[in-house]
Amino acid sequence: MSNSSFNPAETDIRTSETWSAQHPESGACIELAFGPGAPRNPNLQTRLLETLGAGWREHRSWHRPATPLPFGAPSARDVPGILAALERRLEAAGVDGANDITCLPTGWVWIGEVLTHHLCRLAGAIDEVIYIDDIKEKFGSLRVYVCCDGDARAELQALAAWAESASEGRCMVTGRPGRIRSAGWAFCLSDRLAALHGRDPQLVMELMYPKAIDPT
User: Fold this and answer.
1) What's residue 2's pLDDT?
2) Pseudo-torsion of CA 82, 83, 87, 89, nearest 10°?
3) For the whole prediction, is pTM greater than 0.85?
4) φ and ψ at 143, to 5 degrees?
5) pLDDT exceeds 80 at position 212
6) In this structure, what DSSP letter does residue 176 have?
7) How far apart are CA 130 and CA 69, in angstroms?
8) What are the backbone angles phi and psi of residue 82, rounded to the nearest 5°?
């Protein structure tokens, strides 16, 4: 899919959260899925654990995009210019810490475009400053730390949860399906890029984090 066919304003940023419980002795596990955009219900979780009986424990919870982000990414040669433009948009909207958006790898640039669209939208709708504390890769998925002092905090946290879930299983170079690889640190690559990394790791890193060409 080409970049021209991707519209960040039309992306569904709702997530569906799944909560699970486990019985460690038997290895049994049960999952409770909540609908798109619906918050977890702690009372329902408590009642379910009571109904399941002795030995059952809360295990973990995770988010998935309600509507999967299309696979794909812009050309690596275009990435520095795209990220610089996103930074300028965030700065113009008054978002603090806009420079952090330029740290995105090629395969996650579309996620950055969606983040920028919604951060700018929120910044224009509320009378307070939005702060980007950090945007980084961690354990092969995207982490976005963004906050404000007012009522938009919950919406910002939901946006950050969407960004993390959208990055999971998404190659950091191609934006195609990938999985976690370990090569000094954990990162997500497609099978093709993992094979290329085995032959030429420097090339893969240059494609993942391309640098702008100095016209001079």
Assistant:
1) 42
2) 30
3) yes
4) -120, 130
5) no
6) S
7) 25
8) -65, -45
